[in-house]
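Two records follow; treat each independently.
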Amino acid sequence: MTFSRVRLDHKGIGEIMRSDEVRSVVTVASERVGETLRVSGRTVEVIVQPAEAGKGIRDARPVGRVTVMAVNAHRRELKHGDMARAATSIGLEVGEG
């Protein structure tokens, strides 16, 4: 079997990752996770950071941050997994990272 070499178009992938369409998907997913947590009575802050200008895939991409505004949020997440459950309930994959 012969394998061909594959070259990734990092500039093109970076452009897609910084596109309005990807930002929209990130925004919707972040808001949905936040809303799921709000329904359970949590005070939540949702921030979507815009992509930064750049040319390659390694440049910054849109990032959604969902923050539970509570002193014990981290401890509660470790014990009950509220944020992980909220994310998986809308179809996102949650992994350790």
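The next record belongs to a different protein.
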Amino acid sequence: MIGNKLYNINKELTAAQRKAIAQHCTTSSDKRLAILKNYIQSTPGTLNDLNQFLSDAVESNWPNSSQKEKELKLRRLSSFFVDQIESVLLSTFVDKNSSIKYILLAQALEKSGNLSLINYYYDKAYDSSVIEEDYYYQMIGLKGKIRMSYASQNEKDLSKALRLNEELLKVLRHANNDKVTEYYYNISNIFLEKNSLISNRRDELTQEILEQIELMDYPLNKVSLYVSLAKLNFDNELLHLYFSKAKETLYSVEKRNHDFYDLDRKIRFLELRLEFFSGTNIESLLAMSEDTIEHFKGFSIINNNMLFYRILFCLLSNELEKAAKLLEENQVFFRGEGRILENFLQAVLLEKHDQLKESLKILQQIMYSTNYFIAVFSRLLYIKVQLKRNKENMTRPVVQSTQRFLQQNSGNALGKDAHQFVLKALRSKTFGNKTKTSTSSPTLTVFHEYLLNV
């Protein structure tokens, strides 16, 4: 089987990218480009479909070649397609990012010695990076301009280099603060997804972040640090305090740039997710998810994880027609790695309609996913569905393997106690255990409550 890279890159192409590649294929009489255009404009199928397409194309265009030559042409055709697609992707990306384009032009010409032209491109790169609010390319642009000023060796240009160096220092300080906030954002993400790795450092990290907040002069850096504090305190009341401080600081900012809207989106999704795991009721979750989806639509940005929760909440509130419609209308957002989210939602929808065998068929395909939460939720739902079918004998091996799975992933603190509680209840139904269930239960999400309703 060949063409794996081609298959994967084709799956991820947007409609606009496909259009650009198809246009590129019309710029030459090379018959390989005509074949590529045909492939790009067709619906992506399986890897087997791609291999059949390539085999048919080789057979049709080079029928007189030997079998060995055809096999070689098939591999070369796949590699050629990848090269052409990557070339178009890079070209369109550079065209949309002026700072990168001008930096590449300046660097390509540096050995030519035309200082005026090189300086022109670094000027354009810096000006574009300021508009694009990209500090990395501002640094490269400024460094390039300073080098060009050194090269002239006259007092006027050296004076300019001195001024530019002061500007570079400001950019470096800002970039450094961004790196600090990114460090804490990343480590708090790790804490959230794999608590055991750094659980003993929570108090230390909290204190460090509070100290950093006092040192920051850029409000959005403070916002990011408050979000990191919220993640470090996902399991206690400080979660709400730090989200409140993050939003208060964010919405006090008057100049709303790319960084502002990026943080706004992150906060909205993260707050919804953590509210879900904190046991917030379905009515509040529905309102939060609807508000966030509408907000994202205003910026033509939809996050498939946000859509996942929105549709899941509709399912759990028995708004089944609405959930099915949202799934149908938003399939484009569940392509590639997002397909597993769509499959899970389809399984829940089928269970809700009592199409239990169809639901199980999907769950069997995704319950061993590398996506931890989908794997856990799918296993627990599988057990629930089999119990509804009175197939206790089918649930026993899954109950046992799920117990082992949770033990192996005990460092994933988010929802851990709820997973164990639900599994214990389902295990009791499976094995007919008459042991009295504890009257106290951990915080259960609306999905865990749904699982218990067998």
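Discussion point: Residues 98-153 form one domain. How would you locate this feature using only the token line?
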